[in-house]
Amino acid sequence: MSDSKPTVPYWHLYTDDDEVSRQKRCEMTQFELKSMQPPAAPQWQGEKHHDGMSVMVTVQPVGWEGAWHENPSPQWIIPLSGRWYVESMDGMRVEMGPGEISFGEDQGTTERDGRKGHMSGTVGDEPAVLMVVQFDSKRETITPCRFR
Fold first, then answer.
1. Per the domain annotation, does 117 fall within a domain?
2. pTM above 0.90, yes or no
3. Which residue segment(s) compose the domain that 122 sits in?
4. Peptide bond connecting 39 to the previous residue in cis, omega within 30 degrees of 0
5. Does residue 40 sit within a domain?
6. What pLDDT is attached to residue 48?
7. Would you say residue 145 lies in a domain?
């Protein structure tokens, strides 16, 4: 087993100080090598975040496209199969597939040119199956790349 600390990339969709949604590529780097439950072998574990959460799986049909909207609450979105995209108000479009992670935290945007929050939809000819982990609470201040 490698003793090198891993890094896990993710996209952070956030609201900037001008109330415009943007996306930034971030990395989780704070991992500790330990057993989840002895006697299981050690594995790299990231920081635990304690907040009430809901977990669901969604299936976006082929050709699905959502209207411009904000995430209902801060949420991790993890594609399980298929591909999907997120377009932020600044025009950046990111496409993701299995193993790529997005943290949606674009609450508090101000509508500009018919855009508020983000647009998302499926890519390709198969449904996008997404696991969504929604936080129960919202943060007053949004800091890009807050998960380290």
1. yes
2. no
3. 8-135
4. yes
5. yes
6. 81
7. no
Task: Examine residue 92 and state whether it is found in any structural domain, yes or no.
Answer: yes
- Which among 30, 34, 23, 44 has a CA at the least distance from the CA of 102? 23
Low-confidence ranges of the chain (pLDDT < 50): none
Residue 137 tokens read as: 């609470």
CB 74 within 8 A of CB 107: yes
Sign of CA dihedral 77, 105, 113, 69: positive
d(C-alpha 133, C-alpha 40), whole Å: 26
Total tally of structural domains belonging to the chain: 1
Instruction: Note whether 77 and 12 are within 8 A (CB).
Output: no
Q: Cα(17)–Cα(19) distance, rounded to whole angstroms?
A: 5
Question: What CATH number is associated with residue 27?
Answer: 2.60.120.10
Question: Exposed (0-12), middle (13-18) or buried (19+): which is 120, by Cβ within 10 Å?
Answer: buried
* Planar angle of CA 43, 4, 130, nearest 5 degrees: 55
pLDDT in tens, 110-126: 999 999 999 999 999 99
